[in-house]
Amino acid sequence: MKKNYIKLAALAMLVTAFASCRKNFLAEKPFSAYTPLTLTDSLGVEASLIGLYQYQTGILTYSNNQGWPSVWQVGTDVANATANQEGIEVPYYNYATLNNNDNAATYLWGKEYSLINQANVIIDAVEGPNITGLSSAGKNADDAEAKFFRAYAYDQLVSLYGAVPLVVHALTAPKYDFTRAAVSDVNNQIVADLTFAAANLPDLKAGTVNTNSLNKPVGRANKYMAMQLLTEVYIRMGKYALAEAQAQAIINSNKFSLIKARYGVVSAVNGDYYSDMFHYGNQRRAQGNTEAIWVLEQENPTAVVGGNVDNAQQRRVWGAAYYNEANMILCDSLGGRGIARLRISNWVIYGLYPPGDIRNSQWNLRRHYYYNTVGQANYGKPIPYTGPDTLYKICPSITKWGQFDPNDTFGYAMIKDFIMMRLGETYLLLAEAQVLNGETGPAAISINALRTRANAPQVTASQMTLDFILDERARELIGEENRRLTLMRTGTLVTRALKLNSGDAQHPITGLTNTNLLLPIPLSVIQLNKGATLAQNPGY
After folding, report:
1. Which residues contact 487 (CB under 8 A, 6 or more apart)?
2. What contacts 12, CB < 8 A, 6 or more positions away?
3. How far apart are CA 464 and CA 471, in angstroms?
4. Which of 414, 422, 200 has the alpha carbon at shortest distance from 319?
5. CA–CA distance from 222 to each of 44, 74, 294 (Å)?
6. Average pLDDT over residues 310-325
7. Are 202 and 284 in contact (CB under 8 A)?
8. Sign of CA dihedral 281, 287, 293, 297
9. 124: closest CA among 111, 136, 142?
């Protein structure tokens, strides 16, 4: 028996020796690639498309720097950093420190180009010869979905950085010779992508149902998302009539309507119809939100494994730290645990809203807090609104991100959905295009559609200016919109921030100049780009 073992061992060594001499035994087997090898059929494409939503959500929910949401609000006209700031937001009110090593500008640049490359991978595959299992219409729909995300990412980039490299095919090898394309070239690519997307993305079914016209989940891309973004892009390009046409088409589609009555999971408790739209369980079209054009959906990870991405910080950033007051405890009626990394500006608190405006109700902008520890002598009495506590512990705060999860009373992650586009903004974009096109009468009609819903005084044509439209955007969209991007897109960041929000007691705006109408191109990107010159924006 022992001799047999020796013979088998010798044979195994001989086979191994022969095999080791074959050339293909030495050939390297790659375990990764710039582009996936699975995009050859409909299942691979579908998985990759879903990944675009996950990736875009991750940009919004980034939590390694918890002040990330503040970057896009503080140092503008609507908000200021508090004593509880995190750090990444500091150069966005202390503008002299905003430079080409800035963490936020570098992070966003990398994320947007990664999203673009992921979209390009899908586009190349769908438009290539090797895809199987997709009809012509199916290819066009998938192509349109990827092109929407590519256009969305490029719109963010060109609005914030100006001229940027234009890449329309997936990278298959390292590249070190990027150059900045003209803004007009990037805009033309965005328009081409969105025009294709609007023509080939699915429609929405009537009513608040779970699926679109292709029977995919209603949270997936639809034609109106492309049209809404195209409206904003046309405004940025100065093509106001085209922008107006896109916005009117959305409004006249009869697929959306402004929320004007109580609905959903909290309709039987104290609140109002405007606040209903932002409650957890009410934000989606399928949940009754008839304004919803695009909602990035999250699920509570305690109920759905992997239901959320990262740990969204919006509630903690926007919500007051009321529980730091004596005799105050965390509760659902106060929106859970905020830590007030920002405070809305005094202009918003004291000067923005007209009398009676529902968007300024106690359910939408919380101004007063009451002691809530049962058994204490001061239970139910108002907390005095005085002193430094008004800057973050009991600061007035927007309620749109409030949400209490009994499974996470510490409240690290916010699990609400992100309402990315809704009909309220469609009316605002329409009015903006009309004002810039000299149509002040129609612009007043567009704005009054929102003010009628809000129970706010009606406006006239003589009041219609770009500044008024931007004021109305703040009234309607504060806490939702990327305010910095809006003001940079309209070229009004410097004038409005200095006029309306220059004297904050905690962290006033300093060093803001026209240089800051664009963000710096990341120095690390410029240094790695050794094969060509990637020019920096002036002043950085």
Report:
1. 76, 77, 470, 493, 496, 497
2. none
3. 11
4. 414
5. 21, 32, 8
6. 95
7. no
8. positive
9. 142
pTM exceeds 0.90: yes
Distance, first Cα to last Cα, the chain: 80
pLDDT of residue 140: 97
Percent of the chain residues past pLDDT 70, beyond the cut: 93
For the record, the structure tokens of 61 come out as 């929910």
In the structure, what pLDDT confidence band is assigned to residue 209 with cuts at 50, 70 and 90?
confident
From CA 467, how far away is CA 208, in angstroms rounded?
35
Give the residue, 304 or 397, on which the prediction is more confident.
Answer: 397
Q: Quick one: tokens of 276? A: 């209903």
Report which of 108, 121, 200, 207 is spatially closest to residue 154, judged by C-alpha positions. 108
- Contacts of residue 305, Cβ cutoff 8 Å, sequence gap at least 6: none
| C-alpha closest to that of 168 among 119, 215, 109 | 119
User: Apex CA 502: angle with CA 334 and CA 102, to 5°?
Assistant: 85
Sign, Cα dihedral of 107, 113, 119, 121: negative
Report the pLDDT value the prediction gives residue 327, as an integer from 0 to 100.
95
pLDDT in tens, 385-418: 999 889 999 999 999 999 988 888 888 889 999 9
Please give the helix or strand (H or E) that residue 451 lies within, else none.
helix 440-453
The DSSP element (H or E) to which 292 belongs, if any, is strand 292-296
Determine the Cα–Cα distance for residues 492 and 485; give it in Å rounded to an integer: 10
* Calpha distance 50→146 (Å, rounded): 10
* Secondary structure percentages of the chain, helix, strand, coil, to 5: 45, 5, 45
The first and second tokens of residue 437, run together, are 């096109």
**Cβ atoms of residues 339 and 321 within 8 Å:** yes
Full DSSP string of 468-494: HHHHHHHHHHTTTS-HHHHHHHTT-HH
Three-state SS for 219-288 is: CCCCHHHHHHHHHHHHHHCCCHHHHHHHHHHHHCCCCCCCCCCCCHHHCCCCCCHHHHCCCCCCCCHHHC
pLDDT at 4 over 50: no
Count Cβ atoms below 10 Å from residue 341 Cβ, excluding itself.
28
Identify the helix (H) or strand (E) that includes residue 294: strand 292-296
Buried b (16+ CB within 10 A) or exposed e, 129-154: eebeebeeebbbbbbbbbbbbbbbbb
Among 33-42, 258-267, 464-473, the range scoring the smallest mean pLDDT is 33-42
pLDDT at 427 over 90: yes
pLDDT of residue 31: 55
pLDDT over threshold 70, residue 3: no
- Which token pair is 16? 């191994």
CA separation for the pair 259, 454 (Å, rounded):
10
Dist CA 512 CA 292 (whole Å): 35
Predicted confidence band of residue 193 (pLDDT cuts 50, 70, 90): very high
